[in-house]
Design a protein that fits this description.
alpha/beta, 9-stranded mixed sheet, 9 strands, globular
């Protein structure tokens, strides 16, 4: 008999350079001792210096990928990353209605280099159809501002943004403050309570894939049975160490260290 492991699924885009997207998610799942599955939504041509091309999959192909793994090796938790088109978002929202496990929605709207990874007409579908299916939404400051419709640039406006995003339907919202001045403080609103997760700011240009990796770490911990606050605490420690020990690859914004300690 083999060694049973928890299973997690990522529904996201492919990053050829391995720093973000499904590649980062699968590496993170593995590092947390979780078996990873992946449904590809889009393919990017990119490296640490930039993104030159984005091609979305057909929505029915995304549907078939997810249904195939759910029918055979069902996950204990799942996450979404870059979804690309309105049609894919609608398809994933339809699937998410069937999920009986926590779904982490990382609302990836643009790449690290500013290239759109979601069609403009998809944002409203994300808000109205997918976020109500989410256990946790994990926007950064820019994404929180777009979803909430207000400026988000400090802890006070992070709180206001989280309240507005929570009203869209997810059970919990984690607004990531990686671009705040000072310490990197993330703010969780869950079950009517606020929790702050803080780590020292690390000065480095090698932060490619931090959002994907962070949300994947949370998803892996949820799949392993951790409660939400514990999952975020574990993920926060991991992503901080992954940034601190980045391998320095690439001429631009290089990847974090996915081999970082998860303890």
């Amino acid at each position: 008999m083999g060694l049973a492991r928890p299973v997690a699924l990522t529904i996201a885009g492919s990053d050829a350079s391995g720093g973000a997207g499904i590649q980062a998610d699968l590496k993170t799942f593995h590092q947390f001792g979780v078996y990873g599955e992946a449904a590809i939504t889009l393919v990017t041509v990119q490296n640490s210096a930039g993104v030159s091309r984005v091609e979305c999959m057909a929505a029915d192909l995304v549907l078939e990928q997810v249904r195939a793994v759910m029918a055979d090796i069902p996950p204990a938790a799942a996450k979404t990353g870059a979804l690309g088109s309105r049609e894919i978002i609608e398809a994933v929202a339809e699937l998410a209605a069937e999920f009986r496990f926590p779904l982490v929605v990382d609302p990836v709207l643009v790449s690290k280099h500013g290239i759109p990874l979601m069609a403009p007409d998809g944002i409203e579908i994300l808000k109205s159809r997918l976020l109500p299916r989410a256990f946790l939404a994990t926007p950064n400051l820019e994404e929180a501002a777009i979803l909430a419709g207000i400026e988000v640039r400090d802890v006070a406006s992070m709180r206001a943004g989280a309240l507005k995003i929570l009203s869209l339907g997810p059970r919990a919202v984690l607004v990531k403050g990686g671009h705040l001045a000072g310490d990197a403080t993330d703010l969780l609103l869950y079950q009517g309570e606020w929790t702050e997760f803080t780590a020292p700011r690390l000065e480095t240009r090698h932060t490619h894939g931090t959002g994907c990796t962070y949300s994947a770490a949370i998803t892996a911990s949820l799949a392993a049975g951790d409660d939400l606050r514990t999952a975020i605490q574990r993920a926060k420690r991991y992503i901080t160490e992954a940034i601190r020990t980045n391998p320095g690859f690439g001429s631009g914004s290089g990847p974090v260290n996915h081999h970082a300690d998860t303890k």
